[in-house]
Write a structure and sequence with these properties.
A hairpin with a 2-residue loop joins strand 1 (95-100) and strand 2. The protein has 2 domains: 6-56, lambda repressor-like DNA-binding domains (434 Repressor (Amino-terminal Domain), Orthogonal Bundle), CATH 1.10.260.40; 64-173, Roll (CBS-domain). The chain has helices at residues 6-15, 20-27, 31-38, 46-56, 64-67, 81-91, 110-115, 125-128, 145-151, 169-173, and strands spanning 95-100, 103-109, 135-137, 155-159, 162-167. Helix content is 43%, strand content 16%. The two termini are 29 Å apart. The strands form 2 sheets. It has a 3-stranded mixed beta sheet with strand order 3-4-5. Strands 1-2 form a two-stranded antiparallel sheet.
């Protein structure tokens, strides 16, 4: 167990090559307050300690590009619905976007196929597709994903306006 003392904070600050003034600026308190904490004259609040530790060791948030699957399979709205089933089984995927001229117009998932299973013969993808998946930029923090995936089968990832990846619930859990 580590006890966070002023001396401990001072050691961390020095290892991070931060001056008292720079740390104070990052935390939003005065340099004098940092000095008093480090020499043990002041006991900081828990929130101040947390801010100091976060400033010394900033946590790099993962981006969508870090968790996305890059090999996105697409299907055309004019393809036979059975083709979607074949593609999904072949590649072991649970959902895919429906694309028309580089624009997503819908989606197909296992749920879509199951819902239409008895009537899939002779249908086109456009006849059974669901709403499009949300699209996030590849540089977006993954913190936004859980809320989107609660109501969507997947989230598409774009780079410079082009789809470059897909993220599912399983991708986040990995």
């Amino acid at each position: 167990m580590v006890i966070i003392t002023g001396e401990y904070i001072k050691d961390l600050r020095k290892k991070a090559s931060l001056s008292q003034a720079k740390l104070a600026e990052k935390v939003g308190i005065s340099q004098a307050h940092i000095a008093k904490i480090e020499c043990g004259k002041v006991n900081p609040t828990l929130s101040t300690v947390n801010k100091i530790l976060a400033a010394i060791h900033p946590k790099e948030t993962e981006k969508c590009r870090d968790v996305m699957e890059r090999n996105v399979k697409f299907i055309d709205p004019n393809d036979d619905a059975k083709k979607a089933l074949i593609i999904m089984r072949r590649y072991g995927i649970s959902q895919m976007p429906v694309m028309k001229k580089n624009s997503q117009i819908g989606s197909v998932s296992e749920t879509t196929l199951l819902r239409n299973f008895e009537h899939i013969e002779g249908k086109k993808v456009r006849d059974i597709m669901d709403k499009p998946f949300p699209i996030l930029d590849e540089n977006e923090n993954i913190e936004t994903l859980p809320a989107l995936l609660e109501f969507n089968q997947a989230v598409l990832v774009s780079s410079h306006g082009k789809i470059c990846g897909i993220i599912t619930k399983l991708d986040i859990l990995r």
